[in-house]
Amino acid sequence: MNILYGSVTGTAEYLARDAARLAKERGHHVRLAELDDITMDDLADMEDVLVFIATYGEGEMPVNAETFWDEISSYDAPDMAGVSFGVLGLGDTAYDLFCEAAKEIDARFEELGATRRVDRIDCDLDYERPAAAWIDRAIPMANGEAAIPREDTAPAMLLKA
């Protein structure tokens, strides 16, 4: 399972790390990486991809996702048939282009032939519970059995005392 992130303030990275921890607990081999660390050849070889992406400013990609976006939105982007994916977006509804980066990546993966494993979620400032529920749904047990839902509904790294 490939867990990729583009983060501005660190929240998308923290959520990605929480997802990676859960995926390991559920028996998956996990690759955790910033989006800009992924080449298009790497992406074409992936089977399961979860993307955690924040929107910067007025709908822009985070700095550590700009190169990835430039490459995947190009004419010669790879065929992604055989890739299953999910996208979690982080943003602020005070902005007109709320979670635009997530919407663009989600749409582009679909255009390139990838199959959505879980519907995209666009999280506002109170992201903890919806993000935790999405992560729980997005990561099945590696052996195909039904996952036992986590009792907490907020990522372990983000639980408040």
Describe the fold and architecture.
Helices cover 32% and strands 17% of the residues. Strands 1, 2, 3, 4, 5 and 6 form a six-stranded parallel sheet that branches. Helix 3 (66-72) links the parallel strand 3 and strand 4. It contains five helices and six strands, in the order E-H-E-H-E-H-E-H-E-E-H. By secondary structure, the protein is α/β, with parallel strands linked by helices. The radius of gyration is 15 Å and the shape is globular.
Shape: globular
Low-confidence runs? 153-161
Largest pleated sheet: 6 strands, parallel
Q: Ends: how far apart? A: 31 Å
The share of residues in extended strands comes to 15-25%
CA gyration radius, whole angstroms: 15 Å
Report the mean per-residue pLDDT as an integer: 90
Series of H and E elements: EHEHEHEHEEH
Give the number of DSSP strands. 6
- Helix/strand-derived category reads alpha/beta
Number of helical stretches of at least 4 residues? 5
Short account of what is shown:
With 161 residues, the chain is an alpha/beta fold. The protein is 32% helix and 17% strand. Strands 1, 2, 3, 4, 5 and 6 form a 6-stranded parallel β-sheet that branches.
Question: Strands, helices and their partners?
Answer:
Elements lengths: L1 E5 L4 H15 L5 E4 L5 H6 L2 E7 L11 H7 L11 E7 L9 H12 L3 E2 L4 E3 L4 H11 L23
Parallel strand pairs: 1-2, 1-3, 3-4, 4-5, 4-6
